[in-house]
Amino acid sequence: MNYLIINGSPRRANTWKIVERIKETLDKQEENTYDEIDLIDLDLPQCTACYNCFNYGEDKCPHKDKIAPIVEKMKECDGLIITSPVYVLNVTGLIKTFFDHLAYCYHRPCFFNKKALIVVTTAGNGHKKVASYMDENLRNMGYNQRFVLSFIHAHDGHGYLPLKTKEKTDKVTLNFYNSVKSGKLKSPSMKALFMYNIWRAMAAGNTIEIDAKYWRENNLIDSEFHPDIPCNIIKKLPFKIFYKIMLKFISKNSIQKDENQ
Description:
Layout: E1 2-7, H1 14-29, E2 33-38, H2 52-55, H3 64-76, E3 79-85, H4 93-101, H5 104-107, E4 115-122, H6 127-140, E5 145-152, H7 163-182, H8 190-204, H9 209-217, H10 233-253
Parallel strand pairs: 1-2, 1-3, 3-4, 4-5
Helix pairs in contact: 1-7, 8-9, 8-10
């Protein structure tokens, strides 16, 4: 198996100790390869809110030379491992900047058959908030399953992982591995269905031309969720109604372009 590791910490210290344990656990199952990206090494500029990725495509991003190769690796890998320690009750600036550059993936989600493992550590508080934020971002990009490891004081005073930390890490890592290895796709959550149908309605309403083209060309526009992901009719039913409501709302609130401009 091939795993992509995106390290959102500016160093390889406390959070990285969990990553090392994850790799050890995965390697006990089978031989693996790891593509490791330390965001600190990319010198990634801040997103400038130019809207190029939204309106004209991600290939028009002024920082595409740094972002596009990572996205391609996210698409090609068998599983994603992404990390962030807690900085001032939030993700690191590195992770925030990275996610800012992937905002177009909300409009045009593409990771429906992918699984991710989120790793968060803190010396105090905020680990649940940070893990939830990272989980939400990946879910809205389409990630089918996200597994979470979040710890307060992940290591002891000597820098070693306590037994409880090792046991939790091993358990969640094995769940992640089994999900990736099986290739089985999980039915979407209600939150995933909700967000999907918001962007679906916006695409159907042609609010952004490139979004409409993406959703139609990838056969996403005619279903309450990605057609390859299992989702029963009863679960989809409320979103058939919600989608129609969203279409009406968008049509009433769309700004008509002046043909003389």
